[in-house]
């Protein structure tokens, strides 16, 4: 298995500087092989796909078993069209046969409070927003691992946060529910095969005992080179990572509406104290 | 494989009311089999375990490839002691040979901005806190799937947010970094075998095309019964889910410090606009 480990790590890190476990398995292969798929065939999904993916999602951990998340499965072409328009006009939202919108959902526990005539004082805090966001993310990532094990492909759509009120209206969301991200699901098209994207050298994100940025500059310079070479191989504009980071974050305009999140969330019933 | 599917779904849902895919596999088995492990043997972890888990974590999706997360691997017994004291005194933090603290990390991109002498105007927004939180959660869940595939067990520790400034001090975190949650890792002890916990009926969390709470009351009543029966079988105080939700959320005191998150995050350099 060591041979697979080395090739998977090489794809993920360029030149890996880590020594993996001797024990290796197919699950590790699959996890390291992840790539975001942005082109889908028109093959329909087999019956039971959605139910199976959501069973995997519900099997993820959830803080205090509160299960403060929900998901909307969208298959209607017109609705996918409108959601795509709300989320930066990404064509693959229209193309994928299935589009999940993952929700942080405090409304269900809120309804339980109402029914027992009890005020839930702990709810209107930023902590609750984080609970729902984390619950939704853990669940979604389990669904993603499940769908990749079935030969399906996927990409997360953070742009669903560009206009959370618009999305809430489209999906009929009650107060205290917000869309955390979308997720396209379908069979990957061979026309535009997705590649494993190299990540930061492990020493840049993994710290032992205490956080240390010593040696970070060298690790980032190495990564700028790896990622530039990757883009060049793929026939894309070859820019280093540092350059991308700066161009993505230098201006509020790149938030495409997400600079309004606090006000929108408050109007949608979140306390955020 | 259909036989496995049915038994896994029965454990996860009590009486499952869904029809899964005909196609089934070992990865789905593993995902559905997840249980939180809160008792560990003193077997040490094989060499390369941490590096392998973090390679899986880095293989998860990250918004715009910004990789705004980091992780601290804690193995020192005294540090685990102190972290346990900061996080509700949970004994398994001390017992597990490895404790990961997963971080939302805006400091790395911030350092890149400084080095290129560019103000990153898009950074001091709630959106950036969500980016880092979601990135960390997707990465952590991949690590969890990886470690379970290796026969290891784990439990998330949300109580790490009870005192994020205390944790930041213990781990030497720079500004614009906060601990999202902890994660214990080790070999599960046979003394206290962990069980698969039933979740809400799927129809309570999965919506088609639009959100609908119709039929929710019946689904919740069913779950109250299932979960009560589960606790009874386990010899624990048998309360229904609705009761647990209310008792967990009715008072701010159950936030154990997390009601201070906004003020703490601001002192720690987050903009939260």
Summarize the structure.
With 273 residues, chain A is of the alpha+beta class.
Helix content of chain A: 40-55%
Distance between the termini of chain A: 50 Å
Oligomeric state of shown chains = homodimer
- Tally of DSSP β-strands of chain A: 5
Specify the CATH class of the largest domain in chain A. Alpha Beta
Evaluate the radius of gyration of chain A.
Answer: 20 Å
Largest interface: A-B, 133 and 133 residues
The H-level CATH homologous superfamily of the largest domain in chain A, spelled out, is NADH Oxidase
Integer average pLDDT of chain A:
95
Structure overview:
The structure is a homodimer of 273-residue chains. Chain A is of the alpha+beta class and 273 residues long. Chain A folds into 3 domains: 1-33, no CATH class; 49-193, 3-Layer(aba) Sandwich (NADH Oxidase), CATH 3.40.109.10; 198-256, no CATH class. Helix content of chain A is 45%, strand content 12%. Chain A is built from 12 helices and 5 strands. Chain A has helices at residues 2-13, 26-32, 49-58, 77-86, 91-95, 107-115, 126-149, 164-171, 202-205, 216-233, 241-249, 261-267, and strands spanning 69-74, 98-105, 153-157, 177-186, 206-208. Chain A has a 4-stranded antiparallel sheet, with helices on both faces. In chain A, helix 3 crosses helix 7. Chain A is globular and about 60 Å long. The interface between A and B is large, with 133 and 133 residues.
Provide tags for this entry.
alpha+beta, 5 strands, NADH Oxidase, globular, homodimer
């Amino acid at each position: 298995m060591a041979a697979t480990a080395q090739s998977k790590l090489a794809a993920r890190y360029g030149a890996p500087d880590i020594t993996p476990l001797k024990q290796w398995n197919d699950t590790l292969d699959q996890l390291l092989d992840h790539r975001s798929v942005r082109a889908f065939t028109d093959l329909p999904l087999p019956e039971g796909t959605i139910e199976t993916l959501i069973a995997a999602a519900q099997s993820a951990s959830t803080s205090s078993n509160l299960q403060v998340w929900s998901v909307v499965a969208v298959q209607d072409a017109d609705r996918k069209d409108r959601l795509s328009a709300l989320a930066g006009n990404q064509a693959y939202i229209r193309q994928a046969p299935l589009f999940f919108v993952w929700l942080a959902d405090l409304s269900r526990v809120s309804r339980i409070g109402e029914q027992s005539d009890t005020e839930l004082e702990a709810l209107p805090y930023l902590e609750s927003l984080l609970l729902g966001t984390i619950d939704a993310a853990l669940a979604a990532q389990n669904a993603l691992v499940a769908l990749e094990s079935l030969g399906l492909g996927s990409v997360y759509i953070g742009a669903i946060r560009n206009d959370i009120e618009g999305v809430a209206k489209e999906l009929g969301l009650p107060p205290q529910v917000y869309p955390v991200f979308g997720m396209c699901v379908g069979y990957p098209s061979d026309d535009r095969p997705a590649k494993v994207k190299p990540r930061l050298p492990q020493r840049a994100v993994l710290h032992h005992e205490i956080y240390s940025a010593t040696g970070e500059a060298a690790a980032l310079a190495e990564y700028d080179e790896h990622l530039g070479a990757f883009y060049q191989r793929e026939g894309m504009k070859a820019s280093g990572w540092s350059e991308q980071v700066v161009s993505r974050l230098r201006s509020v305009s790149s938030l495409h509406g997400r600079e309004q999140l606090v006000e929108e969330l408050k109007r949608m019933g979140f306390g955020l104290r």
